[in-house]
Amino acid sequence: MTVDLIAYTQRVVPTSDKNPLGIVEEAASICYDSSMTDDYKIAKGCKASGHYSVLEHINFTFYVKDVSRALLAQISRHRHISMSCRSQRYCSEDGFKYVNPFTGEDADVFDNMMSDIDTDYQILKKYHNAKNEDARAVLPNACCTEFYITMNARALIEMSYLRLCSRAQKEIREMFTEMKKEVAQVCPEVANWMVPSCEANPKYPFCPEGRGCCGRHPKLADVYKPIKKNKEVIDGNT
Q1: CB of 54 within 8 A of CB of 145?
Q2: 133 in a structural domain
Q3: Which domain, by its residues, includes 186?
């Protein structure tokens, strides 16, 4: 897997502050008729209070390579992203690379299956005159792809809530971990906000999952346990 941050929002007129959060700070300051701060206090305050719209003023573009089409199907469900993806319709997938999610003997069995599919794909094209767009019907979700993806900071943070959760599939969790590392180099504040949903509010962490909790934080139901009414008189009523 390759994940590279290739572009992010910058000012037309360059300044000494290269952190894109400075743009958020400027945009957010007019909401309160306030002066900008050097430590992005207004931007951080907006994030803390749930005023996420100001984060939509800055974008990040990543180049992602050698991930599965299964991952592509998952990430494409998110809104407010722009993608340009390798096309199996126009590109040949002879000898395709793939993501093997298994280990040991299971991995060997999977490798053999992928080899058989590659043979079938080439048979369709060579002996049945199938075009790439038709032969691709036999290709697996494990087949590797590459794409460029652009999203604003709000979308990136909210996607991380889901995709950095321990319940997310390993491959996409690894991709967002790498994205976080890349963003940290240019905007550490946004990178720090890229956390699983259980840590979206660091002061009050809790797991919002109904089941399958990893135990990292208590479930919401455990934090707010229902109060059992006793048979005693409460406020003059029985």
Answers
A1: no
A2: yes
A3: 2-84+144-198
pLDDT tens string, the chain, 238 residues long: the values are: 999 999 999 999 988 889 999 999 999 999 988 888 889 999 999 999 999 999 999 999 999 999 999 999 999 999 899 999 999 999 999 999 999 999 999 999 999 999 999 999 999 999 999 999 999 999 999 999 999 999 999 999 999 999 999 999 999 999 999 999 999 999 999 999 999 999 998 888 888 887 778 888 888 778 777 655 554 444 555 4
Active site residues: 163
Whether residues 151 and 55 share a domain: the answer is yes
Paired strand residues for 149: 62, 83
Q: 203-238 burial, b if ≥16 CB within 10 A, otherwise e?
A: eebbbebeeebeeebebeeeeeeeeeeeeeeeeeee
**Token pair recorded at residue 182:** 């890349």
**Domain identity same for 74 and 104:** no
Please state the domain count of the chain.
2
d(CA 56, CA 156): 10
Same domain, 42 and 122: no
End-to-end alpha carbon distance in the chain: 64
Is residue 213 in some structural domain? no
Instruction: Give the domain CATH number at 62.
Output: 3.30.1360.170
For the record, the structure tokens of 154 come out as: 């709000």
78 lies in the same domain as 161: yes
Q: Smallest Cα–Cα separation from 192: which of 181, 205, 203? A: 181
Q: Are residues 93 and 108 in the same domain?
A: yes
